[in-house]
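Lab channel / #folding
Pinned by the channel admin:
"Please post every new chain as: sequence first, then the structure tokens as a reply. Keep commentary short and put observations after the output so the thread stays searchable."

First post following the new format, from NK:
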Amino acid sequence: MIATLGDLLEDVVVWPSGPMRTGTDTPATIHRRRGGSAANVAAAVAHLGQPVRFIGSVGDDEIGTRLVAELAGRGVDVKAKRVKGASTGAIVVGVDPDGERSFFTDRGASTALERVKRSWLDGVTALHVPAYSFTVEPLASATIDAVWRVRAAGGEISIDTSSSGALRDMGTERFLELMADLEPDVVLANREEAALLGFDGAGCKGAGLTIVRSGSEPTVVVTESGKVEEIGVPPVEVVVDTTGAGDAFAAGWLVARAADAEVSEAVRRGHAVAARVLATPGAEIDGDGAG
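Reply from TO:
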């Protein structure tokens, strides 16, 4: 079983009708969606028909109850701690007319996971972790412990670098030291994150594979030995919102690799799934009612 570990949040996605008018009203269309990188990946994996488990925490509130039920309703095995007295996290996503997005983040109860129960890792053969899960305690320590346990049981580890802002907040040297220690099977990044971490065109030290996405430009795959391969990205006709595209790519990659696909085919599968997110608000897959 594939598992993801990290945030389950509410996304409030704002599509303004034009440039933001400071100090007054800007008409907009607002979409409320289930979000959180780890939850997005889990939902997309489930949509692709693969058994998947989400591990994380939410507040003991109505929003947390609704998000857990929604994610479970998509076929995800949800293992979420309910944190008393805490609010479920939320993100306001502002989307530019060209589809690029900016985040205003309140992670709330999602960072309060102190440990991952042993039973929550039963049967897990691949664990996917966004870098967000390493940035704040106690979630960071719980995540590192879970990675070691899955690795000790013979499972594979994938880590997404998540966000240049999150990496700066964590400290790039600290993140790179952690990757060298954990030795994940694959590190997934976009071009900006890779450049910030110093492995744009080179591999992340400790990772078996480093995959760098560059939008419509070829994706670069670097092996641990330094071999580089470029894989073309099929054109996408409609791009209205890039939110969750990286998470969808990760889901496609994970499902393809679980079926023993070659690296190049798994990358192509990742892009095919990501393309279905680009035409919808938030991290929703085109043709699906959720993420």
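NK: Helices lie at 37-47, 62-73, 139-152, 164-170, 172-182, 191-197, 245-258, 263-275.
TO: also worth noting, The chain has one domain: 2-6+35-88+108-275.
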